[in-house]
Specification:
The chain folds into two domains: 172 residues, Glycogen Phosphorylase B (Rossmann fold, 3-Layer(aba) Sandwich); 158 residues, Glycogen Phosphorylase B (Rossmann fold, 3-Layer(aba) Sandwich). Helix content is 35%, strand content 16%. It has twelve helices and 13 strands.
Amino acid sequence: MRVAVLAPVAWRTPPRHYGPWEQIASNIAEGLVKLGIEVSLFATGDSVTTGKLYSICDSGYEEDRTQDAKVLECLHISNLMEKAAQFDIIHNNFDFLPLTYSGLIKTPVITTIHGFSSPKIIPVYKKYNSTGNYVSISNADRSAELNYIATVYNGLDTKHFEFNETPEDYLLYFGRVHHDKGTAEAIEIAKKSGRKLLIAGLIQDENYFKEKIEPQLNSQIEYVGNAESLQRNTLLRNAYALLHPINFNEPFGMSVAEAMLCGTPVIAFNKGSMPELIRHQETGFLVHNINEAIEAVNQVKNIKRRDCYTWSNSQFSCDKMVNDYLGLYRNILSK
């Protein structure tokens, strides 16, 4: 089987810091190679893969802002589509735009829908409902207007995360610094709980950071930057709990699965996919507001960290994800 994996070109695949779609594209590609599948990864030129790499740019447009994002995207997608006949199946991790080529090629396309940036993009997906082979990354993140062949949860490379039975006393916020992700709410929870909070992640909204976050930074509330993979593992495994007070219906939440894989319980606002990721009172707590989150911090001592690890490892590993996708490829090709 010859598989083409199409990654975005915003960041390197896998990303150095932020880049969840790129990370999953990498995990799929590398997992398939481990199983002996012939894989071609379409990504930025500085990407790292054990498969064959195709690229039209040296680096991503978010890492080199002199580049035009739309130009790169058009060149990148057409580079794959013009080679489509070389592959048995194309795995699209690049949102809706590649679908517009899919009626012009014979190679089947499977599309992982990593989220909806806006309801306005739904018509493109609807146009290719019968041929798009859509996969959701959670049952919560599905549009009633689309046809899906499966839900496949995002899978983590478990060797990058280390279980820890004896954490330190700090709370952790790990993710984009943005209102949607609830950075300010995490600060309020930590302050009212009387605990130290470490904040790690890409500052996606500069005004939000300057107005809501930066004035509250002190010895108790620290911003430690955008963590690389080694620092990420250290922060997650040593945290007493991860705070995830999101203000939107999150499609998945990589940091939630990553934290639990380290044994760290998660306290999350009960929105989007959170009930699928967290087993309430077993691997963390699903709460509805800041007061409930504060109470949950006091109950973290009742969570067995080994249970967090066991759950995340069984549901959100790269091996499970890749095997699920391989089964879908075979079903598509058998038709």
